[in-house]
Amino acid sequence: MKGFSAGPLRSEKNLMESVQRSEILMRMQKSRQSGFSLVELISVLAILLSLSAIAANRYLKMRQVAQEAAAVSNMREIANAEATYVISHPEVGYVPLARLGPAEENLISADLAAGEKQGYNFSVLLKDGMDKYAILGIPQTAGSKSFILDNSGKLTSTICDRPATATQPNSGGKRLN
Question: What ranges in 34-109 are assigned the alpha helix state H?
Fold first, then answer.
C-alpha cells in the first residue's frame, strides 16, 4: 500500500465537517436575520408618528383656511342677494338677513338666512336708514379671522385674539386690510 496515506482522507473529512459547520452557521444567521429588531421597529414608529403629527397640523391649517374662504364666499352671496333685493324693491332698500331667505325672498339658503353656516355667524347691519349695510362674518367654531363686507364691496378682515363664546363673539385683534 504504497502511495496510500491516511492524510488526504482526514483532510477531506475535515473539509466536509467544516462545510457542514458553515452551513449550520449560515442557517443560524439567516434565522436571526429574518425579523426586525425592537430598536428598528421603534425607530420606524417614531418617524411615522413625527410625520403624522406634521401632516395633521398642516391638515388643520388648510381646513381653517378653507373655512375662512367659505365664510368670505358666503358673505359675497349675501351681498349679491342684497343687491338683487334692492333692484327688485328699490323703495325698501337693504333688508335684514332673515328676509333674504326661503321664508320670504328665497335669495339665499335657509341656514345662511338663519345667520349660521360652516362655523361662522353672519349678520347684516343696516346703516343710514336702509341705504347702506355691512355684513359681519364672525367665527364661532372655525377660523381665526372675522370679516366685514360693506355695500361698496370692500372686505376687511381682523385676526381674532381670543376664542368666541355664545355670549361674547370674537372681536378685537389686529386689522389686516
Answer: 38-88
